[in-house]
Amino acid sequence: MLKKVLIANRGEIAVRIIRACREMGIRTVAIYSEADKDALHKTLADEAVCIGPAPSNKSYLNVKAILETACLTGADSIHPGFGFLSENANFAKMCEEIGIKFIGPNHKLIELLGNKSQAKETMKKAGVPVIPGSDGLVHSKSEAIEIANKIKYPIILKASAGGGGRGIRIAYTEQELIKEYDIVKQEAKVSFNDDSIYMEKFIENPRHIEIQILADEHKNCIYLGERDCSIQRRNQKMLEETPSSVISDQTRKKMGEIAVKAVKEIGYSNAGTVEFLVDKNQNFYFMEMNTRVQVEHPITEMVTGLDIIKEQIKIASGEELEYRQKDINISGHSMEVRINAENPSKNFMPCPGVITGLHLPGGNGIRVDTAIYQGYNVPQNYDSMLVKIIVHGKDRKESISKMKSAIAELVIEGIDTNRDFLYQILENKNFINNDYDTSFIKKEFNV
Predict the structure, then answer these.
(1) Is 227 helix (H, G, I), strand (E, B) or coil?
(2) CATH 3.30.470.20 in the chain, residues?
(3) Per-residue DSSP letters for 310-355?
(4) Which residue numbers are catalytic?
(5) How far apart are alpha carbons 121 and 51 in whole angstroms?
(6) What whole-number distance in Å separates Cα of residue 407 and Cα of residue 31?
(7) 207-445 sits in which CATH class?
(8) For residue 287, what are the CA distances in angstroms to 37, 115, 237, 282, 319?
(9) Could you check whether the bond before residue 243 is cis, i.e. omega within 30 degrees of 0?
(10) What percent of the chain has pLDDT over 70?
(11) Where are the domain boundaries for CATH 3.30.1490.20 in the chain?
(12) CATH of 132-201, one of 3.40.190.10, 3.30.1490.20, 3.90.76.10, 3.10.450.50
């Protein structure tokens, strides 16, 4: 078993990892930037080291400083959380080269699956249904037009190294394709320092369904049900639930088994998520694979009883999975919302500042993952997510009721949040009737 884990992250996910390690008797090292000198994760860890100034590229993305800290503190492993370096193949490779265990898949698989066009081809070879589109990268506008005429409009252009909803544009006509082509290339270059793009047929009004998998280093793999992540704003998830009420047990089983078969074929290990788009006829198509723990992992934990962070650590320690597929039972329904420091009435403008008053909800079946406290100064340098509220009920109706109660109880004073906007979603008739897709936010709220 690993003895000392350095957490290469901040905020609620760093706190989440520290707590899991503490329960397992594993010592932890927190890294923090100058902007995070009063952060909760710094206080909770056994050791904490300032890694640099506020900008991410000088702190949480500073590979050299992080690896030096791991060596100096005697950490035998690094957990990257999500975001920052979690899907950086070079970082994982450097960890491997100096004998520090990267808690995630090996660098070759991160590189393979991080390139969206390569990942699509890999999954296609493994027998996973993929959306019709380009065979690899698109190199010119003329090639893009030729492919679009073949697969028919609408089409979607995507940054090959993309993520987080950036570098994505939809075109319904050839004129729009010509215009959006240059924009996507530019966004890709700015966001990922890689302007390579690919294209696919745009599946209209789909559900975004993802399969959570766990795979050990002994070729054992299981899936832990699915998560419906269709409530999104500009490709950024806002609310997730499990199980999805729109797919049948037969489709759920088929998706899970295909995901497991694919990750086994490529030799994947640790936690991962295979993401699909599902159309109104329950046809599903591979979209991407995330080679890290997801923001929304707690809802899977609520319905399965497993601790995904602990499982990641056990797998990284070389242990065999304790469970087989027959042991996984889904109990009830779970839902998560992301409370962000942002103002929905001002185009969701970020709202950093000091939290002058705070009350977090509680009660049976309510979990709160956060790193904020009263008096905490929310920095402007990082992601705006403050709190994840997770609820568990006997069914979807009870989950919605619990979430409304929890959100109504939440008090965050001193800064603006999206709390009331999320409450409006929960009261929306179409959401309550489970009549929604990835265009829900745009259609219902025009944002």
Answers:
(1) strand
(2) 207-445
(3) HHHHHHHTTPPPS--GGG----SEEEEEEEESEEGGGTTEE--EE-
(4) 292
(5) 38
(6) 31
(7) alpha beta
(8) 38, 12, 15, 15, 30
(9) yes
(10) 100
(11) 132-201
(12) 3.30.1490.20
Mean pLDDT of 215-223: 97
**C-alpha torsion 433→438→444→445, nearest 10:** 140
Does 347 have pLDDT greater than 90?
A: yes
> Is the dihedral angle over the CA atoms 186, 189, 191, 194 positive or is it negative?
positive
- 4-103 folds as Rossmann fold (3.40.50)
Give pLDDT tens digits for 132-168.
899 889 999 999 999 999 999 999 999 988 766 778 9
User: CB under 8 Å to 302, separation ≥6 — which residues?
Assistant: 332, 334, 367, 390, 391, 392
Q: Are 82 and 103 in contact (CB under 8 A)?
A: no
> Among 43, 44, 25, 33, which residue's Cα sits nearest to residue 8?
33
Q: Which residue has the tokens 């809802």?
A: 299
| Residue-level pLDDT at 333 | 98
Report which residue type is found at 131: I
- Give span(s): CATH 3.40.50.20, the chain: 4-103
Give residue 164's pLDDT. Answer: 65
Name the residue among 198, 188, 182, 197 with its Cα closest to residue 135: 198
pLDDT in tens, 255-305: 999 999 999 999 999 999 999 999 988 999 998 999 999 999 999 999 999
What tokens were used for 121? 């081809």
Q: What is the pLDDT of residue 112?
A: 93
